Amino acid sequence: MFPKVVQAVPMPDFSVYVYFEDGKIVHYDMSQMIEKEAFCCLKEIEIFMDRCTVMNDTLAWDISGCWDNTTCLDIDPDTLYALPYVEEAIA
């Protein structure tokens, strides 16, 4: 089975609630990743929040704002799916 992300909800603490097609929900903490060179453009909370989306069935950030798969930053869906299930904490 290939896990498919259907929704991503960014939070102001640089984390994201990730919802999968099968109903699984995970909480992904990006606070360490934004320190890496490839993700440093996400250090601005406005960009982190506004550009967070689902592209290619996974969590991604549409950096260009043009829905161009070649300019997005994404996280492997298998990496996300391996995280423990969490209860939805969004009101």
Can you tell me about this structure?
It is globular and about 30 Å long. The protein has a single domain (5-81), classed as NE0471-like N-terminal domain (NE0471 N-terminal domain-like). The longest helix has 6 residues, at 45-50. The chain has 91 residues and is mainly beta. 14% of the residues are buried. Helices cover 12% and strands 31% of the residues. A hairpin with a 3-residue loop joins strand 1 (5-11) and strand 2 (15-20). The strands form two sheets. A three-stranded antiparallel beta sheet has the order 1-2-3. It has a three-stranded antiparallel beta sheet with strand order 4-5-6. It has two helices and six strands.
